[in-house]
């Protein structure tokens, strides 16, 4: 595998590529489905030809303004009737399971929004089948893996810049739920995928799994409601690794001091320290390094940010979907967030839930 | 065609929005949490000869507009460039409730009189006509700017770029028609995709719009890339352009940034400054560079 194949930012290569156009359908055109539809609007070879959702303002608008997209109210009917190469699933997480199952039976490439499923065992079964179905491409939508800062952070950690990792803290903070009435709908119940850990904190858990792998043990987990009645607004957990690394995950979607969601990481290794957030990286090296001076080094976002062919809500959503399109065309390409990765993350989420339930 | 002001004072600095660092953003948010500091900055800018202000319809903008209205005589020649909506308000609501419930929520927050005024268009909600709903939302967002002078009304880039990818032509056409007819203002679009948006507006048969987007040598927030922008600016431009993010969030020195923007034939810049010194320096720089 070449380096360009290994990078999750294979966007430049896809521009103006001649060849066969590939067809995809979207299940669910809410906020994320609409974003994906928009990003693929100008894609050079992956076209959305069908969409499935219940009647809504958005499906009405699609039927009116996008006559090139065939609309269905039943995704199974859509999968039966349409000739497709890929499907994008952007419905609430408790519906993912049967949709993934149906798409896998049709041997389609699949992009499924995070969290992958709500059941780690089911996620692992899909992951195993995904490994066997090498002719299609299966990706989970943990979009932060495609942000400029976290792509660079992963590169640095893979180059072992910090030596052995001693400890890390991952924080996911935002102001999504600030009132009691905010907790309505599927987000207000754990069994439908609601709550801060599945819906919001899963980004932090996934980044930890992406950078450090799965912990062997999870301990001291607490799930705390602040506004929600039935689910947590805050989660705190300690992750222990076989090699001695100790990490913590803290997620809170009820913190009004954050204007927009932020993922922050602080990593201490034997050779130095890295702080990462939306704005860039701060690297402290204990000794002189070929790329970094001894002491503090700052890399700001503008120096890391690589343009994408079409910008919608940040570069990461475009990079994520363009990587998926490349995968649909060539399933042997590097997959920065495969079903196996999604299952790993789902298992850690489940470990935190189980630990918190025991601790309670 | 709209005569854009050559220098427009932006508002990110007043609301703690800083793309360079969260710490810097927090410092600014703290300083400008006292709106008197914002008013003071507007007076300073106006005294220096900066009469154009871009203002997003966020939760503080209502109060700022009240001040500007009640002190209108102290700001002769002042012109606003409103940008709508405040995207995070909608993003949070949509995340919680979904799209349709958000729209209902926003509209139900209006007074009975306003709703009565909207009733003629209210049919849009029932029939699901997104173009009609869009005009209702424009009215909701524009209420705070009542009786203030404005030249253009910009649609925020998150909305512009989302709709651009969705290729909902009718929404763009109706937005432009509505803004011009109801508000006698030029329809504006903030975007991170200037060449693509320009081509699309042209396809829609829209000729009266103005575009504001990032222009900097670093290619920061410029999709697909700097080369495509430079190609675009090399041709005659169908839509007047205002450049933003010219410093690429601190990656480019001010003189180099201004020289680059002017080399692309762009005469209007929106910039962020919070002190008299900084405003003055930017003004002088632009005048000086333009003379060369």
Brief summary of the model shown:
The complex is a heterodimer of chains A (360) and B (292). Chain A has 360 residues and is α/β, with parallel strands linked by helices.
Outline the structure in words.
The complex is a heterodimer of chains A (360) and B (292). The longest helix of chain A is centred in the last third of the chain and has 21 residues, at 339-359. Chain A has an eight-stranded mixed beta sheet with strand order 8-9-10-7-11-12-13-14. Chain A has two domains: 3-144 and 325-338, NAD(P)-binding Rossmann-like Domain (Rossmann fold), CATH 3.40.50.720; 146-306 and 341-359, Dihydrodipicolinate Reductase, domain 2. Chain A starts with a helix and ends with a helix. Helix content of chain A is 33%, strand content 24%. In chain A, helix 5 packs parallel to helix 6 (120-132), helix 6 runs antiparallel to helix 11 (339-359) and helix 8 crosses helix 11. Chain A is of the alpha/beta class and 360 residues long. An eight-stranded parallel β-barrel of chain B has the order 1-2-3-4-5-6-7-8, surrounded by five helices. In chain B, strand 7, helix 13 and strand 8 form a beta-alpha-beta unit. The model of chain B is unreliable at 119-123 (pLDDT under 50). Chain B has a domain at 49-150. Chain B has 14 helices and eight strands. Chain B has 292 residues and is of the alpha/beta class. The chains are: A alpha/beta (360), B alpha/beta (292). At the A-B interface, helix 2, helix 3 and helix 9 of A face helix 4, helix 5, helix 9 and helix 10 of B.
Topology:
The complex is a heterodimer of chains A (360) and B (292).
Chain A: H1 3-6, E1 22-27, H2 31-39, E2 46-52, H3 57-65, E3 70-72, H4 75-81, E4 86-89, H5 96-105, E5 109-113, H6 120-132, E6 138-141, H7 148-158, E7 165-173, H8 196-212, E8 217-224, E9 234-240, E10 246-252, E11 262-269, E12 272-277, E13 280-285, E14 295-300, H9 301-304, H10 315-329, H11 339-359
Chain B: E1 7-9, H1 22-32, H2 35-48, E2 52-56, H3 61-70, E3 79-84, H4 87-97, H5 99-108, H6 112-118, H7 123-127, H8 130-142, E4 152-155, H9 157-166, H10 169-183, E5 186-191, H11 194-203, E6 210-214, H12 226-234, E7 241-244, H13 254-263, E8 268-271, H14 276-291
Parallel strand pairs in B: 1-2, 1-8, 2-3, 3-4, 4-5, 5-6, 6-7, 7-8
Helix pairs in contact in B: 4-5, 8-10, 13-14
